Q: What sequence folds into this?
């Protein structure tokens, strides 16, 4: 177009009468040469412009392709700081307690419990944690009784573990960790809720079924005569029938104690076998000879059957639970069982929860050292009722009361009434 315009202008000049009159032949020839040069340059510029347009089109296409590729790329993973990977939680409880046991003076005391746990996500599939708690070396209690003129109280290592998620739903733990075994109704027929086993554990849950395996050192020092590695596991499943969720399972545990001294307490004190049958070296009942050490009479090869049913009563969640345990080594006093219910919850302001169960713990049905430290004063060889009421003040704070109506020392022939009242204020944080 530019070329045509230039030629038209030039022709109008060249062929106009005025031009002929004013321009000599020499000037006319020179003008024609200049016009040819301009025309050639215009053609060069047109070619260059076409090349530039082609290059621009290629650049636009490349930019568009890059933008599309970038948009389709996954966003880079954002690195977390150590502060983001560390989680803290804990609780504090203040308790008033009154114990009334026939044949003994009534006892009242104030107790506290404080626990703090730290969890660090050191890798996408690995957690390391530790926890501190009040109390002493009691394996089933972190309570601390107040007194002693306001003396300082002990703080102990309660947790120290690694939790590795080896595959989807499969967790492997090592160290000192929370009990991986299921406790029906979160209650303690066999294992106290404060017990933190030491050793190795495996937890696997997939779809409707679960498997829990525990290997624990009751005494891990081979230089001690009563070193003890115990193991056990559970297999169970969950299903729904109508509006009822059903959970059930079986368990087996091997705790070799026959002929060994207690792993906690004084081996010459029958009370430190926590309801289990113990004898002296000559077969006499433990405590017959002053200062003589005693040993367990039986192993604890335990078989467990447990079940839960959860459903709603109006707007109230409800749970019915059952637990049964049997020891295959002794010929009598070898079974224990628990049946109870839980209605409501106390997780927020104004919410309430009621819990009740009846338990019968025959003397050698379970290892007394590890069972509930409050029911019957701890250990086996006890039976009776337990009632609890909790009321939520807010999401973190609750108050409650527990009452035990028990019989203790059932097998020993000195069956005694044991009543215990506990009033709690508990604060949880995380």
A:
């Amino acid at each position: 177009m530019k070329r045509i315009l230039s030629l038209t202008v030039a022709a109008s000049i060249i062929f106009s009468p005025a031009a002929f009159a004013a321009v000599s032949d020499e000037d006319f020839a020179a003008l024609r040469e200049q016009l040819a040069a301009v025309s050639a340059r215009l053609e060069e510029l047109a070619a260059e412009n076409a090349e530039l347009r082609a290059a621009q089109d290629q650049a636009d296409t490349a930019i568009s392709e890059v933008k599309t590729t970038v948009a389709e790329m996954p966003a880079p993973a954002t690195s977390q700081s150590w502060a983001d990977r560390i989680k803290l939680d804990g609780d504090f409880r203040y308790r008033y307690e009154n114990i009334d046991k026939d044949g003994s003076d009534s006892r009242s005391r104030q107790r506290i419990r404080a626990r703090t746990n730290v969890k660090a996500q050191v890798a996408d599939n690995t957690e390391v944690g530790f926890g501190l708690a009040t109390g002493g070396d009691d394996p089933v209690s972190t309570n601390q009784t107040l007194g002693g003129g306001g003396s300082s109280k002990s703080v102990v290592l309660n947790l120290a573990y690694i939790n590795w998620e080896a595959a989807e739903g499969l967790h492997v733990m090592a160290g000192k960790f929370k009990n991986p075994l299921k406790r029906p109704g979160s209650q303690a027929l066999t294992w106290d809720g404060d017990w933190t086993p030491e050793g190795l554990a495996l937890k696997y849950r997939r779809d409707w079924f679960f498997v829990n395996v525990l290997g624990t050192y009751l005494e891990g020092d081979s230089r001690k005569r009563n070193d003890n590695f115990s193991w056990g596991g559970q297999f169970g499943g969950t299903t729904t029938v109508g509006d009822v969720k059903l959970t059930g399972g079986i368990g087996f545990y091997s705790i070799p104690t026959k002929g060994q001294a207690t792993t906690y307490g004084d081996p010459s004190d029958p009370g430190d076998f926590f309801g289990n049958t113990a004898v002296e070296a000559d077969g006499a009942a433990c405590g017959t000879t002053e200062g003589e050490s005693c040993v367990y009479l039986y192993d604890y090869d335990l078989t467990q059957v447990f079940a839960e049913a959860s459903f709603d009563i109006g707007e109230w969640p409800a749970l019915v639970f059952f637990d049964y345990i049997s020891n295959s080594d002794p010929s009598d006093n070898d079974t224990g069982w628990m049946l109870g219910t839980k209605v409501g919850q106390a997780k927020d302001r104004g919410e309430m929860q009621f819990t009740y169960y009846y338990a019968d713990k025959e003397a050698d049905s379970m290892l007394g050292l590890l069972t509930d430290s409050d029911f019957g004063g701890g250990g086996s060889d006890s039976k009776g009722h337990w009632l609890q009421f909790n009321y939520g003040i807010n999401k973190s704070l609750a108050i409650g009361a527990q009452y035990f109506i028990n019989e203790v020392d059932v097998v020993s022939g000195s069956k005694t009434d044991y009543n215990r009242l506990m009033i709690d204020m508990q604060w949880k944080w995380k």
About this structure: Residues 13-20 have pLDDT under 50 and may be disordered. The CA atoms of residues 96 and 110 lie 5 Å apart. The domain at 89-258+299-429 is CATH 2.40.160.10 (Porin). The longest helix spans residues 25-72.
